[in-house]
Amino acid sequence: MSPSGAPIVVIGGGVTGLSAAWWLARAGHRVLVLEKGVVGFEASGRNGGGASHYHSPLFHEEQRLWPQMDDLLGYPTEWRQERVIFALTPEHLAYYRYMASVGRELGYGAEDIDARQVRELVPLAGDTVLGGVHLHYGGHANPQRTVQAYAWALQDLGGEIRQHTSVNRLISRGGRIVAVETSAGEIGLDHLVVAAGPHSQRLLATAGLFLPLGMARAEMIVTEPAPLMPVGGADGHGLYGRQTLRGNLAFGGGPHEWLDMDADGPVSRPTSPPTSPLTRNLARRVAELLPKAAHLRVIRSWAGIVENTPDGRPVIDRPADPGNLTVATLSSVGFGLSPASGRAISQLVLDGHCDFADLGRLKLDRFAGLAPDWREQRGWTAAPAEVAA
Amino acid sequence: MVRDPIALDGRIPRPGDHAQVLVVGAGPAGTAAAIEAARLGARVVLIDENPLSPGLMGLDAPLWFGGRMTSAVQQPARMLELMVAGNPAIAEAFEAGVDVRLGVTCWGLYAPGPGLAALPCRMVGLSDDQRSWMCGFDHLILATGQRDVAVAFPGWDQQGVMGALALHSLLNRYEAFAGRRLVILGSGDLALQTGLMALERGLELVALVERLDQVQGDPALAAQLTSAGVAIHLGQGDFAVQGGLDGVERLTLQDGTQLACDTVCMALGGAPAIELLDAASGATRNSPGGRIPVLDGLKTSISRVLMAGDCTGLTLDAEESGRAAARLAVLGEVTVAALPSETPLLAYQSAWLEPVREDVVLCQCETVTLGELLDVRAPAYLGPSTEQSKARSLATLLQDGPPNQDQIKRLTRACMGVCQARRCREQVSLVMARAAGLGPTEGPHAGHRAPVRPLPLSLLADWEEGAVMARDWDVWFGIEGAWTPHHWIGTDRAGTQPPSHPPVESDA
Ligand SMILES: Cc1cc2nc3c(=O)[nH]c(=O)nc-3n(C[C@H](O)[C@H](O)[C@H](O)COP(=O)(O)OP(=O)(O)OC[C@H]3O[C@@H](n4cnc5c(N)ncnc54)[C@H](O)[C@@H]3O)c2cc1C
Using an 8 Å Cβ cutoff, are B211 and B188 in contact? Predict the structure, then answer.
């Protein structure tokens, strides 16, 4: 704790901010999380729940921590280890087998399996399966339960969460961030963690920092429950998703829609953006992936907003200037990585470096010199409106 | 202008099906709207989901049928005949040149706007019992009426406990009601009228049961019932329904009196059917009569989407409002002003909820009791609660902020089932309002989501999707290099291309 007694302030009550705050509280520090709405109501409560990010420097820590999270937090996350990914086309099969080979190279158990083995592990699959892979690592958890588990565990350690409190700008003095201006007045701080998802770009700009992000909507659908399969973490055929422990099939994938930002964030309010007719294309692919579930009813669809950096990889960084600021945007892979990203962030805040992973490639300055119109150059902007109001 | 080659824009085709004026719901408001719009020269499509598929009825969608249907509901042709015979306005609409489509459900409304700019036009999702498709529209009139509201009591999960609107539908629309001896819950106008209708249809009306100490509806209607020998039991806070293999067998009053019956019909008022508007992020708000659309005249917050009839929650003449909506759509004329219903239905429903004990199930689909809701208990399949979990409750959550029904849904699963919360949306909100010390009209609202009817994957699926959708389908954003293993970066393997993330079909 700082001599002044001011807390470490975290902006954003998503999985990233909450996990970071929880790790900081575990280390005995005073933390305050500011959340503009309800914890986990943005991407953190709306994602596929997948946790198999073999491409990330945080992968080993992700795999090490997840099996312990229920015990560490004291609340259930619905974590289940292992995944089956299977293909209906030779191209997909080649890709999934490549993914498994990377897993093996990293020292994890993964087997190529044939169609019959797929159907044993995933009985709702059908005759159209060509084959797949069985990963003994990776897995999935329930996003909403996990968010709440972090939030409650943080409170159990004395951490404070202020919901319905939104930060408008960062206030700097003498090369440091000294406070944030919020909807409930100014709040002084010792160290600031910005983990505000798509909003991080706008917030950091108020302190003169450039975090390039493109915002897009991604959609999912969910069915009524099916009997539990031996492996619930089953997907493929261009879909990501899982069977929940209740039995529901929840899947997403396919084209995203780029969104524009205004001062209030992505111009797609309220918090729950509407879905599109993509629901039908998702339904088709789930019916193809799991033909024995094709009779199950779709009972909901939902969408969430994903922020992407130009290279599609997270930023987890404590820039040299100002010295008391840590930035984290997880750029579309933040749920699964959250146990590890939170720990990494807490180490950056407390020690200035992370001792279990090389975060060198996740620094903010890799985007220095990026053209200001980089989003336009890639077409990462909202579609031109075709329909007049 | 550069576009991301795999984004959604351009991938949702303009539907082949299109209506200048599309009317959803062939009740009095919808048929009047369709006929008026056709007379004004518009090309009109009028759809209604009746006759319903027996599958939906079995799920209590859209009304709370409670399993009291005869096998007549298995004969769609006969149901269709009865439905048309019983509603002359449908024939009139045919004659006026309206494209009338029965047995067609509208399960989604999609309006282009900020966040949904990729849509090529305004459209709805439709389905029949064979397939689903999209239909574009210039103007949409929602005349979706009301749906049943349920309030739990001991035994309410028995077969044979049903809603009054469902009973009206089974008796009047389909001649397919399977019960004979009826107890009605409530004594408002809906309950009294339902009782009189039951008598007229030759059913045995055993009694009306009212939780409050006074009859709530028109005394003249109540007098008609009592003079026909029907008892109205008042002040019944603590009654229960018992049943056997075929569902309801009797209702036991609080003094122990047993009323033998096979059906218990809850008639505490309906809720405006706002699902389509709400799921499309159209504005809605609380009112004494329940959750209602925010309207400017008959205009919703979504451009070119109007509402008419009971789904507005306004006190108005259904047919007149339908015609006004049609004139507004076709001619752009301003409409009649009407005030929201002030009938304090939510307060009344809340009073019915008062005596419910903690072991009574509130959410039937997910089997969540009142006690589990108040404890914010994780479902049993997650194993025994930890000490930390036991210390958490709705009361502790409320210390963190105002009640949020979507949050409670996610944690307890109440309202997350296959009936899409038709049976528990209102009561969970009322329970939460009370726990937060709020009035019944200050409760939270659980948002609706498309599809607003539970539809099978195979039926909802787009089996004719465009080639570009299939060609460029990617599991995620397809950002080059984003998934290159971290330990390869900076080595000579960094450029290694994974096997191409492939097209599913290559006929584009
Ligand atoms: C459909 C979908 C599927 C996905 N599937 C997966 C998956 O399977 N696996 C995976 O790992 N990841 C997945 N993701 C990505 C993952 O959900 C996100 O990377 C992750 O949730 C990011 O968490 P976060 O805490 O960084 O950001 P967010 O969840 O966006 O949280 C940021 C929080 O900050 C708050 N906030 C913003 N601005 C302010 C302000 N000014 N003041 C106060 N508070 C503010 C917001 O309200 C929000 O709660 C998916 C995402 C989507 C949308």
Answer: no
